[in-house]
Amino acid sequence: MELDPIELDLRFDLVVAGAHLEGQPLNHQLVEIGGELVRRTTTADTYRLYALATDPPKPGLVRATSGGRAIEVEVWSLLPADLASFVVGVPAPLAIGQVELADGTVTTGFTCMPHGLEHAVDITAFGGWRAYLASL
Fold this sequence. Notes:
The protein is of the alpha+beta class. The protein contains four helices and eight strands.
């Protein structure tokens, strides 16, 4: 069976906001499956960021009904099969959902389930995971 050349080039974007950012401890998971950094940007100004009680430390990105701001993120590109295998390994309370970026596009990305915020610290004011880590 011959594959359609267009399908061979098909890639999907994934928004990351914390431990998978370039230079962070879990970034190798994206790199090892052929992930390519597409761009650095921010979310729309409707998100809150929390430091979760996880090991290694990770943030949780949550769409806010009020008090949100733009949060630093990266967009990584993955082949469909690689994205699928990656997504099934995402541990709760993290989840994969839809994230609105500053330019108005909506892309698949890391989010956090509400129960994960129970012992979390609101770090929205830092504007991103790297800035929060730099403050420690």
